[in-house]
Specification:
Number of strands: 3
Number of helices: 7
Strand content: 5-15%
Largest sheet: 3 strands, antiparallel
Order of helices and strands: HHHHEHHEEH
Strand order of the largest sheet: 1-3-2
Distance between the termini: 21 Å
Structural class: mainly alpha
Radius of gyration: 17 Å
Length: about 130
């Protein structure tokens, strides 16, 4: 995903994250223990290398378990276990295609999380190249 696309996905309405609305919502969300807990569960799911790689791969398009097994170089049971956790956290969805189950990201928010995380992590690398 290019920088412009990431900015559009993350911003969705102009201005630096639509500051007034964003600050009000941030204040509201931070005051809710349930929302804060759910957010920490999402970031906990993102903190595992295999799960992050699965989400990154799914941000490029939907995949089956066998596709993910090959791309991530881990066993089918490991992929299935991680997908179950990601489904429980609301980060991926699944649909049947005959005998196969096809996985995709739950929504654009997950794409944004992955993209922003990768862009942020790559900053020191890019800064050193200049």
């Amino acid at each position: 995903m290019n920088q412009m696309r990431v900015d559009l996905v993350a911003n969705r309405g102009g201005g630096p994250m639509n500051e007034a609305c964003s600050r009000d919502l941030l204040d509201e969300y931070l005051s809710s223990d349930d929302v804060v807990y759910d957010a920490t569960q999402i970031f906990d799911a993102l903190s595992d290398l295999t799960r992050f790689r699965i989400l990154g791969t799914l941000s490029l398009g939907e995949k089956s378990v066998s596709d993910l097994e090959e791309i991530c170089s881990v066993s089918q049971s490991a992929i299935s276990h991680q997908l179950r956790l990601l489904r429980d956290r609301g980060l991926v969805t699944a649909r049947r295609d005959g005998r196969r189950v096809i996985y995709s990201l739950a929504d654009e928010h997950v794409t944004t999380l992955i993209s922003v995380g990768l862009l942020h992590a790559a900053e020191p690398v890019r800064a050193g190249e200049e």
